[in-house]
Amino acid sequence: MGIINRLTKRTLQGEMGRTLLTIVSMGIAATLVVATLVGFTSSQKNLYEYSIQDTGGMQFVIQDVPRANVQKLRQDPAVTRSLAFSNLGTAALPKGYQNYVGNGANLVGMDPTALRQLVGPQLVAGRLPRTPSELVVPSDARSGKPIKLETIRLTIAGKNRSFRIVGVINGYHTFSSAYRWITYNDQPSTGTVSIAGSFASVTRLQQRVQALATANGVNQAATKISFNDRALSWLGAGGNLRDMVTVSGLLLFALIVIGLAAGMMIYTSINLGVRARTQRYGLLRSIGATPKQVRQLVYREALALVLPALGLGYLAGTGGIAVVLELLNRNFGNSKFPFHLYFTLSPWALIGSAVFMIIVTFLASARPAQRAARVTPLVAVRDNLATPRLRSWQMRTGLWGRLMPTPLSRLAAKNYRRNSGTRWTMIATLSVSILIFVGFTGFARAVLKDTVTDYGHGADLYFTLPDTPHFDTIATAIDRTDNVQASLATKRYDFQINKRPPGFASNIVPVFVVPDKTFASQFNGQVVLLNPSHRVITKGQRRQVWGFPTQFSGPLDFAELGKLTVSKTVPADTPLLRAAASYNGGVVISESILARSLKKTKIESPTVEYNIMLRDTRQHGVTFKKLQNLMPTDGYDVVANDEKSMALLTAIQVMVYGFLALLSLVSLANIINHIFANLLQRRRELAMLQAIGTTPGQVTRLLGLENGRLLLISLIWGSVLGTLLNQVLLKRLSTIYEVAFAIPWLEIGIVVFILFVVWAVFSLVSYRMIRRQNIDHWLRLT
Amino acid sequence: MAILTAHELTKQYTGEEIPALNHANLAIAAGEFVAIVGPSGSGKSTLLHLLGGVDKPTSGTVQLYDTDVFALNETQLAIFRRRQVGLIYQFYNLLPTLTVQENMTLPADLDGRKIPGAELSDLLATLGLTEKAGALPSELSGGQQQRVAIGRALINHPAIVLADEPTGNLDQRNSQEIMALLRAANTTRGQTLVVITHDPAIAAQADRVLTITDGKLTGGGGNGHH
To answer: Rounded mean pLDDT of B183-192?
Structure first.
């Protein structure tokens, strides 16, 4: 072992307390790095798995594969999973139907496996086809109007075929141009075939799939391939550069913040070590150590500290993420939502953490190493040379010094003023630590708080139907279904008013027609104006705004209905009313009133909506299925969607708060490290004070005053800058997302509390240390 | 023949009116034992540090053999101190985390040079530290610590050993032992030796005694104001 390594080892062993404190502090920073990178790779994997479910686990679809090459393509070693479906030809659509995506309405035939995997996740209404005469159509096939489950005739290659529409697929799903008009087919195709597939490795996926398609006879392969870009972009393999930049940018941003916090903490530790050992470096220099050798000594000390810290980081970081994911999975299990978070231990994350920590450590040690290398040999023999040169302003009694009432507090003020070099380093690092905590925690809290819905909860389930003559019969049947607590059926028309009353934003006023029975029971037979509210953020402040004047009553002159007298305005503040009113709100009338008032015989058919509240929301799946039999069209299970959103939100919240908690711990470790290392460095000075008759209590008060002032100034700087950072981040975000700025008092309060605790603990520890220290021992040291 | 010469060596500290060292000239021959005496604050230690390349003069030169010490850059100066100068301080200045043997071999280790076992054993035996080779400085008496410092100064066979009050912190018996060791190095190994001292008995053992008063050196043996 070389002398530099030996010196490093002995130095660290000789100061075991400081060494362990530094290793633990660096270990927290390493934990943060490991947890971030492992958490990031796990999140990538989880979001990929979540998004790839939309396409049945398939990454791509290649269209127009010649039938003869299908087996060869599917058996290619790169292809780990695949599904094939037949292209049955371009269909001419009946009147009222249109195809909005792709070149013509291509009818495809799928076997049950392909239907289940590729169509199932994107089915928004109805069911999958079970016979070659059943059809799934895209949701936009009727220009946004609800799809009727009716029989239609398609003309394919000059032949007419009848299909009964049994289901609706999301018209804008990921592979949409590859399959929109889908029927059942388990026979070998006579035409070309489309193949959905997946590769094990996503490296250069786009190019490899294109090469595979070209090699298997697909003409103009680039235009015949669709990718699940949303899923692939989580792995950085999507075609959408912006997604990749966003994901990488997010990681880079997190790493910069961590690097800053960890770097400052490491800098503080190493720098204080260097200051404490200045005389030793002077001695080494006097007996012939070159500046380079002294620099190496400091770097090796830092490296020797970061290696065990990394070990700690690996254990705590990976263990912590694994435990958090397990707890979240258990939580998801309880909610019966099929959402699973995978723990991914990528070697790149582990290697990346080590490289990152080592780079940060080297960067953070550079200045202390330079400082150590610049120590002159004379420092070894003349301790007083280490005393900084004081400027004339430092020699004057400042305002603080003049305000201090006792000799001790005046001495504290003098010490504080004359110790400017160390003081500003400490204030700068503490302020940045506080800035990071206040800025980012406040920001995260504001964002996560604002993810709560803007409008409050609506119905548990809802169904949309085309206009139906069985409007109220279906409503009655819904009310009689098990587990349905209440429901509200509405037909929505958008009618024009001839004269717009004050406070009405538009001449178009929605009219909600409800069954007569409902009108009598829920609205007391009165025409009311259903008034929705929503939240807006103006000048950074959140406030509630109403769709209509809150006290409106009186006549409204409709072009299609004549005059309707609104008896009162009802706030849409119950889940059913909120759901029925939707964003715009409108006038509520009964079917009889509509029939009596309608001037025109031909009006555009309305959208029929059934909003339903459940007695037991845990049984939402069963009830939803029962109601689907009643209304086999476009239904939406809000509870299931909320569970899904809540699961994702919970996962995000846990990750974000975990990150911030670790970041805060790094900052806290920095503060503790700083203050206590400073105390150890000043032991001789304190012994001198004791030698001339200062009591331990007085010395403690002296230190308490100096540190209290330092913490107070850091608190002010850190809080002000942190609040500004918080505001800047929220302002940037407010361009794409409605978030409000508020001064992060909670975070500032937490910082005040923590600083007070640190200050109190410091006072206690320093008092005990000073009371027990051997004054003679410290005075004899040179 | 002079191996070390100082020419017009002046050191003026910032804020001080009188120079700590004022145009000192000095020539020291190989194998010579020179004592520098003078009252406190007269500039003895300043002169020693300038001769050892530990501090830099305001003006003037120091030459060891043909090398102009202050024309060297930082790294060259460090290597110069490591190989050509042995420094001994009043307060020993040992590294508390290294053993006796490690402290002694430190300059050689820094130089990447391994001291042969027999040579090291001889030196330890000469210094009376054979039994203490593995001990830490905190386990030694003041006299023993100073012997380690002497061993460290001699380990690289430097051209000159500079000792700043090497017995200033020791009792009489230990002082005599330390001086005997230094004297022995001078006589048996031909080691050139410059010792700063307040002690007339130590000065009396030297081949030549230089006096320094208010930064002015007398009896230097070189050109100039002496």
So the answer is: 89
Does residue B139 sit at the A interface (CB-CB below 8 Å)?
A: no
CA-based angle A177:A182:A187, to the nearest 5?
A: 120
Please count the structural domains in chain A.
Answer: 4
Report the sign of the C-alpha dihedral through residues A716, A720, A722, A723, in that order. positive
Other residues' Cβ atoms within 10 Å of the Cβ of residue A754: 18
The reply to whether residue B110 touches residue A3, judged by beta carbons under 8 angstroms, is yes
Window 254-283 of A, Cβ < 8 Å to B: 280, 283
Residue-wise burial string across A137-148, b where 16 or more C-beta atoms lie within 10 A, e elsewhere: bbbbbbeeebbe
Alpha carbon distance B170, A61 (integer Å): 90
- Picking from B74, B79, B154, B160 by the largest number of A CB atoms within 10 A of its own CB, the best residue to mutate is B74
Cβ–Cβ below 8 Å for B87 and A285: no
Task: For residue A268, tell me if it sits in a domain.
Answer: yes
Question: Which residue, of A581, A606, A632, is where some domain finishes?
Answer: A632
pLDDT tens digits for range A579-589: 888 778 899 99
Q: Do A327 and A240 sit in the same domain of this protein?
A: yes
> CB-based contact (8 Å) between B157 and chain A?
no
Same domain, A541 and A557: yes
Chain A residues inside the 8 Å CB shell of B80: 288
CA distance A409 to A403: 9
Whole-model pTM?
0.69
Assess whether A6 and A37 both reside in one domain.
yes
- Is the residue at A412 inside a domain? no
CATH number of B2-90+158-218: 3.40.50.300
Query: Would you say residue A440 has pLDDT above 90?
Result: no
Residues of B in contact with A291 (CB under 8 A): 74-75, 78
Question: Which residues in chain B are closer than 8 Å to A391, comparing Cβ atoms?
Answer: none
- Pair (A220, A242) in one structural domain: no
Lowest mean pLDDT among A5-9, A572-576, B124-128: A5-9
Q: Does A390 touch chain B (CB under 8 A)?
A: no
Q: Left, alpha or beta for A389 (phi > 0: left; psi -120 to 50: alpha)? A: beta
Answer yes or no: is A408 within a domain. Answer: no
Angle in degrees, CA B54, B60, B61, rounded to 5: 60
Mean pLDDT on A424-430: 79
Q: Do residues B83 and B112 make contact, with C-beta atoms less than 8 angstroms apart?
A: no
Work out the pLDDT band at A539, boundaries 50, 70, 90.
Answer: low
d(CA A119, CA A126): 12
Q: How confident is the model at residue B226 (pLDDT cuts 50, 70, 90)?
A: very low
CA dist., res. A762 & res. A75, Å (int):
69
What is residue B225's predicted lDDT score, i.e. its pLDDT?
A: 37
Interface test with A, best of B47, B89, B95 (most A CBs within 10 A): B95
- Confidence category of residue B51, pLDDT binned at 50, 70, 90: very high
Q: How many CB atoms lie within 10 A of CB A768?
A: 12
Mean pLDDT score of chain A, rounded to an integer? 83
CB proximity A617 to B under 8 Å: no
Residue A404 in domain: no
Determine whether the interchain pair A10/B98 forms a contact, defined as Cβ–Cβ distance below 8 Å. Answer: yes
Contact residues, A window 360-389, toward B, CB-based 8 Å cutoff: 376-378, 380-381
Average pLDDT over residues A621-627: 88
How far does B207 lie from chain A, in Å, by closest CA? 26
Q: How confident is the model at residue A150 (pLDDT cuts 50, 70, 90)?
A: confident
Give the model's pLDDT for residue B223.
38
Interface ipTM: 0.75
B110 touching A (Cβ < 8 Å): yes
pLDDT tens-digit series, residues A633-644? 677 888 887 777
Question: Does A523 lie in the same domain as A592?
Answer: yes
Decide if B87 and A293 are in contact by the 8 Å CB cutoff.
no
Contact check, Cβ <8 Å, A377/B74: no
